[in-house]
Amino acid sequence: MIRxxxxxxxxxxxxxxxxxIAFALIAHVPPVHGLYAMxxxxxxxALLRRSPFLVTGATNTSALVxxxxxxxxxxxxxxxxxMMLLITALMGVIQVSAxxxxxxxxxxxxxxxxxxxxxxxxxxxxxxTDQVRNVLGxxxxxxxxxxxxxxxxxxxxxxxxxxxxxxxxxTAAIVVGCARLTRALPGAMIAIAVAAVAxxxxxxxxxxxxVLLVGEVPRALPTLTVPPLSVERIExxxxxxxxxxxxxxxxxxxxxxxxSARAWIKFHANSELxxxxxxxxxxAFFGCMxxxxxxxxxxxxxxxxxxTRWSGVIAGLTVLAVMLVFAPAARYVPRAALGAIIMWxxxxxxxxxxxxxxxxxxRTDALVLVITYxxxxxxxxxxxxxxGVVLSLLMLLRRVGRLxxxxxxxxxxxLYREIDLDAETGKSALVLLAxxxxxxxxxxxxxxxxxxxIADNGARxxxxxxxxxxxxxxxxxxxVATFAIHFQAAGGQLILCGLQPELHERVVRSxxxxxxxxxxxxxxxxxxxxxxxRAIDKARREILAQDDLGDRPLVRxxxxxxxxxxxxxx
Length: 570
Known about the structure:
alpha/beta, Transcription Regulator spoIIAA, two-stranded antiparallel sheet, 570 residues, 9 strands, seven-stranded mixed β-sheet
């Protein structure tokens, strides 16, 4: 157990050092803030979480979002770090609040795979293209918009530095080579060291046109730093903090569920959100970038046999040790080498297999994937995140907003089976319906249309079995009550049966219960289909006592069919 935790923590810690510097580069803040994000939130979250595999720290996507958001919120470069710290603090507060309200499972359930894949592809594209300037040594400004990035590069292609390109190519070769040999080798660290020594030995770091370097990285412990708290700043940063908090929660839950499933252990979403949120709040007071769950480092912990949360603590302490020993040397690292590593990480983000699965599943999912991907490239990234969440909710509403209603027809006396509603539904005096799923505002139009059509066909009594409907909202209840008023005025009778105890009590006390009367709202019974039997017998008696049926059948009969799972003896 100790060996697995130690090996996993040290390995992911060594990987986190170049990643921390690289992600700070993406976020356009000094490298130290990326390194601190690999220390404080990583250790704090590890001490609080229940998963032995999930690792918190700066990530590609969080860095990209921070870089684009801070750029839109600050006019002066010196305001970037204070605004970043405020976003980190607000993000943590939002995540802790979501955990307290037990929203953890909802974020993983209600954001579709199509949105996640589309956003990840978009983020990978932006990150990759943004680093072309560093790999080629082109001194141009970064941009969160793809077309602006391409335009900047095209207009400055004459300034390409072949020395930077050579360092980037060598870095990429070392990283790929180490990855193919074994995951235990810290390929990124080795590549960075080789690139720095090569640039120094060849004299490329000096002269009138030196290659671009990372710059100063102080050898210092994280120190207490208070985020700039003010009503005006909070109002400015809150919307974008919400966007990055949502992204971080979805990312953490998705990664956590994936690694937990592979290890056959239970994933506790709310506990993990609380741990990550508290880690971000703590990190905001120690100069850290916003953090989220890291897929790469979490996978390392899983593969190298981590068994307890102490593996995350070891990872954070490893980054701290490396920073204290080697921080002065980090200033000599060529930006081209870091750019190549970031590009490699961006390539690893691309999951073409998942994209192919989503694309082939349905046209709707494929369209959502494309829309999310394009919006990530075109719009400000917080709007792309919000759009992804809205698209997920619209997909959910589209799927659950379909009324699941069938008619139960008589095969032989007291034996019923389910069929779809059709033009004949309602032409018998008594109509028995069954609904499945919750009745809410999204299905009201279809519910009203079906009931009105059945009434127009001449039905005298309508029974709705609600055994498989566990909830009904105020909009749907009022729609049913309005229909019942008109139906009863025309001599009809509406009966609800099979209601679960809690729902039965709520309906009886509502306006709907007043309209129908307690005798026409029947709770489910111990005996199978007992309330349905009572409803049918009640409706039969009243119809036969009051109506001359003429040629109209009392109940709809269907051709005899073999009894199966959808046939009921009532």
